[in-house]
Predict the structure.
Amino acid sequence: TASNDAKLLVDSHCELGEGIVWHAKEQALYWVDILSQQLWRYTPNTDVHACWHIPQMVTAVLPTTDNRLL
């Protein structure tokens, strides 16, 4: 049976989390914390998350055809 219960996957404590995008090739979810200048990635298949500091405020990222982020 389906559940309507929400589950916290990444406790990122974002100040202003935005720009959520699914990267199909990596099977990963990306988002940014604009105010903290961080880029986040969560890979559900492995339940692994990562965070990188970025040198400026970014509002969103998009995967490119050559497997980079724009």
